[in-house]
UniProtKB/TrEMBL annotation, chain A:
Signal peptide: none
Pfam families: ABC2_membrane_6 (PF06182)
Record's keyword terms, sorted: Membrane, Transmembrane, Transmembrane helix
Superkingdom classification of source: Bacteria
Transmembrane segments: 36-58, 64-86, 153-174, 215-232, 244-265
Protein name (record): Transporter
Automatic annotation (TrEMBL), chain B:
Protein's recorded name: ABC transporter permease
Keyword line: Membrane, Transmembrane, Transmembrane helix
PANTHER family: INTEGRAL MEMBRANE PROTEIN, SLR1174 PROTEIN-RELATED
Domain of life: Bacteria
Membrane-crossing residue ranges in chain numbering: 20-43, 122-143, 149-172, 184-206, 244-262
Organism for this UniProt entry: Gluconobacter albidus
Length: 277, 274
């Protein structure tokens, strides 16, 4: 690596340590450029096809339950970009059950004088979701271009919404990892909150039944990081009667969710019993 | 030629598929969730545009979605995991050394893997989405029974052909894996193709009209879309015979070309590892 190696006695700051782990991970992934390219393109195409499905519904029925294509595109773009960021950062939590708990190698992480969260974040900085990210960003921009009443404040609110959404999905991944202390192997049911969350987040909230609306508002704050900020940015009144300004602050709920999951993680680590030998 | 080795390969993979009972339940929850989200979306789209004459009624679209969800693991999403491992470790030479027809050997294992995964899930989801949903008063959201007795029998025949067709497409992914020495490429190519072209993403009849003939004629439609159309009794241009004919055509074509490709691949195969 081009950067100068620090002497072994110097202690790296947390950020410095993360940078080096992330750098090593990127170099490792680019060792197989062909595989990386195929995976990134596959990721781009898969997620773009998802939007093609929505667009086809739109073509046939004229609107999606009264919502214009611009609004739906903004929702779709927001949730996909946010999830792509969380997928990039949180790979270590995704594979935590199989690679750390079952094998017992989590014991080694506990011996290191660093936060376990930091070490797991540094497990891998995954480049593959760049396909989803670019595709989501593309649809988001197209949506903003098509939507009739875009607010200037969207420049501030949309990045906040993406950050809040990424924090929320990262929280789900951390919660999933904490669950592995009990289940050992990762449970695919949690995919309901990650991939299923993306699926639910790309449609307007009003399309769902009451139980699902409550779930993705109060249990998983999906509507807070996606639906309300999108309404605020597009100056679109909420058919359910929530005042529009709520959308400018609601993405903070994503960070709150992440905070709760981190607390749960610390509780879970405190009760950890190794499965290894 | 004796059938026994192929039956053994089939039996082994079938048992592997049945072993993971918790995975079956986890899959059921995930499929119920995706099914529910999709159904609510369709319901509000259909109710907001009551004048649009769609090729599927709302009830048919819902039934289509439930059957697709229940057959998700039947789709050719990538290569057989055992072939992927063999290609990575070089254990593929053992398969080459066996005194059996390699196409049939892999095909029987692939078919068993697909069925072992799909059959328990499909039966379970069909019970939950069908009779159970009716009992708890969600009849409007449930899986509708087949159009009539003929449709039921023909769709059963058609889904059998669909399973064979899916296994044949997975054989193409297997050969691709043997060629590139990594299973990743087959997943990167196979998953998007299968999810879009089989009608998992959106029922094929609901795509824009100009593209529908092409979508019906491509091989992936034969896996689940044609059987579901027969089950629902929705018209296929030319009738049920076209549907079954397309399935047989693709089954034959992909088998002949696939065998050719396999022979060529095996002849110049480079094996990884020592």
């Amino acid at each position: 690596m081009p950067e100068t190696m620090p002497s072994p006695t110097r202690t790296l700051s947390a950020l410095g340590l993360y940078r080096r782990m992330a750098g090593a991970s990127i170099v490792a992934q680019l060792r197989y450029p062909g595989t990386f390219a195929i995976q990134a393109i596959g990721n781009f195409v898969t997620t773009l096809l998802g939007f093609f499905g929505i667009w086809s519904l739109f073509r046939r029925f004229g609107s999606i339950a009264g919502w214009d294509i611009g609004t739906v595109a903004v929702l779709y773009g927001l949730v996909n970009v946010a999830f792509a960021v969380a997928e990039t950062l949180g790979r270590g939590f995704e594979v935590f059950g199989g690679e750390y708990v079952r094998t017992g190698s989590f014991d080694r992480l506990l011996l290191r004088p660093r936060s376990t969260l930091l070490l797991l974040l540094g497990h891998e900085l995954r480049l593959r979701p760049i396909g989803r990210f670019l595709q989501g960003a593309f649809v988001l921009i197209a949506g903003l271009w098509l939507a009739p009443h875009v607010q200037w404040s969207a420049v501030l609110v949309l990045p906040l919404a993406i950050a809040g959404g990424a924090a929320m999905f990262l929280g789900v991944l951390i919660g999933q990892a904490a669950l592995c202390f009990i289940t050992v192997e990762g449970l695919e049911v949690v995919n309901v909150l990650t991939y299923g969350g993306v699926e639910a987040g790309q449609y307007p909230l009003t399309m769902f039944g009451r139980w699902l609306r409550r779930f993705i508002t109060f249990v998983l704050p999906l509507a807070a990081v996606c639906y309300y900020p999108a309404l605020f940015s597009l100056n679109h009144p909420d058919p359910l009667g929530m005042p529009t300004w709520v959308g400018s602050l609601s993405p903070l709920a994503g960070f709150a969710f992440l905070g709760v999951m981190v607390l749960i993680w610390h509780r879970a680590v405190a009760g950890y019993v190794s499965s290894g030998s | 030629m004796t059938l026994r080795p192929y039956l053994t390969a089939f039996g082994l993979q079938w048992k592997i598929g049945l072993r993971y009972r918790i995975a079956v339940v986890a899959g059921l929850v995930a499929q119920m969730w995706f099914g529910a989200v999709t159904l609510m979306a369709y319901a509000s789209v259909y109710h907001a545009a009551p004048d649009v004459q769609a090729p599927l009624s709302l009830r048919q679209a819902m039934t289509y979605t439930w059957i697709q969800q229940s057959l998700f693991t039947l789709l050719p999403l990538g290569c057989l995991p055992a072939v992927g491992d063999a290609a990575k470790t070089g254990a593929i030479v053992y398969d080459l050394l066996r005194p059996v027809d390699m196409w049939h050997w892999w095909l029987s294992a692939t078919l068993a893997r697909l069925l072992g995964n799909a059959v328990p899930r499909a039966v379970l989801l069909a019970c939950v989405a069908g009779p159970l949903a009716m009992l708890v008063g969600l009849g409007a959201w449930s899986l509708a029974p087949p159009a009539d007795l003929t449709a039921a029998v023909l769709s059963l025949l058609s889904i059998t052909l669909g399973a064979l067709l899916s296994a044949t497409i997975v054989m193409w992914w297997n050969i691709l894996t043997a060629r590139t020495l990594s299973p990743l490429g087959s997943y990167a190519v196979g998953t998007p193709l299968a999810v879009l072209l089989s009608g998992m993403l959106l029922p094929l009849p609901l795509y824009p009209d100009w593209i529908r003939p092409f979508l019906l004629a491509q091989p992936f439609a034969g896996i689940t879309d044609i059987p579901i159309r027969i089950y629902l009794g929705t018209p296929i241009p030319g009738g049920v015979a076209t549907g079954l004919g397309l399935q047989l055509f693709w089954l034959t074509t992909l088998t002949l070309l696939g065998r050719l490709w396999m022979r060529q691949t095996v002849n110049r195969l480079e094996v990884q590892g020592a």
